[in-house]
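To whoever picks this up:

The parser on our side crashed when reading a file containing two proteins. I've narrowed it down to the boundary between the first structure block and the second sequence. Both blocks are reproduced below exactly, byte for byte. First block:
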Amino acid sequence: MPAFLALLSQALQSVAVDLRPLHVADVGFQLRPALMAVNELAALGIAILGGDVWETWKGTDPQPSYDSWHADRAPEESWGAYVGRAAAHARDQIAFFDSIQPQAGRALFVLVADSEEQYDHLMAEFGHLTDPGGFKGDA
């Protein structure tokens, strides 16, 4: 389960759709809870790095739609500015992907979120993606 789940309000935790039965250690949220989760995480200083869109149909298990989005941190961008920009981008993408769902289906949004400390740790360990071929420092 994502570490950020424990930081969300009990109301949001209770409506999170557990994807573990589908062999995915994550949760998804429908439209309104997804937007609320973005707002709660941003208020805590947690950045929404991106997200994946899943689809549900009446009586069927959620399935990945293979749609996603991401928000990269700009060079020299402060963490606070990044959190705000990434949250606005996530809200826009969630609204867009929800608007294109067929009427019989519903979108689930799986958020990818991180704290500044964890983000900095990962970037120090792996570096920035310099091109589609690999990470900085690859020989």
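<<boundary where parser fails>>
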Amino acid sequence: MWGAVLGGEDLLPIEPTEHDWLTPYPPFGTRLPLRWEKGQRRSRPNVYWYPSLWHWVCDLSAFELLRAAVPKDIHVIAQADVDGEPAWVVQVVNRLDGVVDRAASLIDRYSTYEIMQWPSFYRSAAERMSDKLFGLPEMTFDVFLGERVKAAFEAAGLTGLRYVTVDWTNDLSWTATARTADEAWAVVQELASSTSWPRGVPVALAHVARLLRVDRSMRQHGLLLTLVRCEVDDVDGAALGADYLGLADVATAVRSLPQWTKPTLDDVETAYLAAVGSDRIREACRRRFEDSPEDF
């Protein structure tokens, strides 16, 4: 997408395939002359991919941010020039252990070794990860960003950073207690936006959150993509959420979604959008909270 930088291979002190990459690559004083090969974006990024070393080359803006935000997480292999502009070859050396839920992760297992293809991180480790740029002991080149580091890069408008999206296992227990109808609605919105819920979410609250999630998806993506994106239990739970809120017509409209072939697709979408809306859901949620606050 952003292309890559090339050159300097004859100056590397160790053949990259002979280094274990779980330890810092030997630094060297020679300034690497590099050139940028454009990618599909056609614009120059702040962080370049350097395939010869499988790591990053940072321009001044990106390097200064990394040096200020995560100085202990990076190792400077060399200074470089990219088409005459100063740059730094950077390796992420921080590796966090004990943050991955192996039972929920995708791992290829062989007779004598394992390969972790996709890790799922414990939600309880989020704070420990938040201000870190890191890898995992089980994965050689994959890099992950904690929330604060990711937010810093986004706020600075820096581009080209290659990292793996964090997936969560929510190992926390439900602790939220809504004291007002507005707080109850805020909790429903947060659950509807989250892909990972804590243990022990009240059943009624989970159904209402699924109803709001389906409604958002219908308005943003339409029926077909909603049915692709949502699990069957999301639609079933959404209908139960409408039943719980006393919205019989909404429950009927939701239950009709998987039956889109009869009547037509457009008819089902039109009927749903006419019956359902977040304002109706919110008002019904408010009334239900006033009647049964213990459910929230």
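After patching the parser it read the second block fine. The longest strand covers residues 74-82. The mean pLDDT is 89.
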